[in-house]
């Protein structure tokens, strides 16, 4: 019988998995604390599970919420029957707004007769002002242009293809986009990508929960720079004529997404030998060419060599 688990290059188990020898082969099983990313081939791709809920600085859940660890990261759920609307200090609705409790928090809407003058379309009902009344009989009636659609604190332009989103702000329909707020909405094909940001110019970026909150100054600043710089970069490529705009879906903790790539090859001490280069593990701690083979330098393939002995005869 051959014990594939006794030799790392005879099995394809992850270095974070246990190799279990069987009569008909072997079995790979991710170690405790590691997640199996490929259940179809168990134990071949294992990554360490980070529980963001164990440390407050790894999640931004409210103190009245429960942090639930998930495979992708974490999610926050309000602890029932917590109702932010019952306590004025637990919500930031304007005194002239109606607070409505929801499963995941609360929403604010200005009372009838009050106008929402808030600057953040994602947070309506925070600044409500009374509408000016009086002398209506002498004032000229205001006729709203058929091209304008009232939406929160603004008016959507129908000639630009804008729609009112959530009754709060104007934007394009799903699967549409535009380069600037004054352009027309056009059909777009969205391509999601993940990008790791390590610096802002010469300043090294250090993650904080402010980067995960769209209303924070850090989030707004870094997203604005990213969209402008990425757009300028793409426009200088062959894809430039087809590029429309960039949207940022979210910013997450680098410990969740930016894990180091799993080294390729089979382990040998603190190294990983590359089988495609013909390397073998020497003395359990060094990768090199097998006996009878050499190579020109690191990263080159090992090749058989023939030794030729020369004898030198010196006469006196």
Query: Please, how many helices?
Result: 2
- State the share of residues found in helices, binned by percent: under 10%
Query: What ranges have pLDDT less than 50 throughout 5 or more consecutive residues?
Result: 132-141
Global outline: elongated
**Main pleated-sheet profile:** 2 strands, antiparallel
Mean pLDDT reading: 79
Strand order of the largest sheet: 1-2
**Percent in strands:** 25-35%
Sheet/helix structural class: mainly beta
Elements, N to C (H/E): EEEEEEEEEEEEEEEEEEHHEEEEEE
Report the count of strand segments: 24
Secondary structure: elements and pairs:
Blueprint: E1 17-22, E2 25-30, E3 34-36, E4 46-48, E5 65-69, E6 74-78, E7 97-102, E8 105-110, E9 114-116, E10 128-130, E11 148-151, E12 154-157, E13 163-165, E14 169-171, E15 176-177, E16 186-187, E17 199-200, E18 203-204, H1 217-235, H2 254-257, E19 266-268, E20 271-273, E21 280-282, E22 286-288, E23 293-294, E24 303-304
Antiparallel strand pairs: 1-2, 3-4, 5-6, 7-8, 9-10, 11-12, 13-14, 15-16, 17-18, 19-20, 21-22, 23-24
């Amino acid at each position: 019988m051959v014990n594939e688990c006794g030799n790392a290059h005879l099995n394809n188990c992850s270095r974070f998995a246990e190799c279990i020898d069987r009569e008909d082969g072997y079995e790979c099983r991710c170690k405790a604390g590691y997640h199996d990313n490929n259940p179809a081939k168990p134990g071949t791709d294992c990554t360490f599970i980070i529980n963001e809920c164990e440390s407050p600085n790894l999640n931004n859940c409210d103190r009245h919420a429960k942090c639930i660890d998930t495979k992708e990261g974490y999610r926050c759920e309000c602890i029932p029957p917590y109702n932010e609307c019952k306590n004025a200090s637990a919500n930031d609705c304007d005194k002239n707004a109606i607070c409505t409790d929801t499963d995941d928090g609360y929403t604010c809407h200005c009372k009838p007769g009050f106008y929402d003058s808030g600057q953040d379309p994602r947070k309506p009902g925070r600044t409500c002002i009374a509408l000016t009344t009086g002398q209506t009989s002498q004032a000229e009636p205001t006729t709203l242009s058929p091209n304008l659609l009232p939406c929160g604190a603004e008016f959507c332009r129908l000639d630009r293809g804008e729609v009112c989103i959530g009754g709060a702000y104007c934007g394009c329909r799903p699967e549409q986009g535009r380069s600037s707020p004054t352009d027309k909405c056009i059909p777009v094909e969205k391509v999601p990508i993940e990008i790791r940001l390590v610096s802002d110019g010469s300043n090294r970026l250090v993650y904080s929960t402010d980067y995960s909150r769209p209303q924070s100054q850090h989030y707004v600043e870094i997203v604005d720079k990213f969209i402008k710089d990425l757009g300028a970069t793409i426009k200088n490529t062959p894809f430039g004529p087809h590029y429309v705009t960039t949207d940022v879906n979210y910013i997450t903790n680098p410990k969740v997404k930016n894990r180091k790539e799993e080294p390729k090859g089979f382990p040998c001490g603190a190294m990983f030998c590359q089988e495609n280069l013909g390397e073998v593990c020497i003395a359990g701690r060094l990768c090199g060419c097998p006996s009878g083979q050499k190579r020109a330098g690191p990263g080159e393939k090992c090749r058989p060599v023939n030794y030729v002995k020369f004898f030198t005869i010196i006469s006196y």
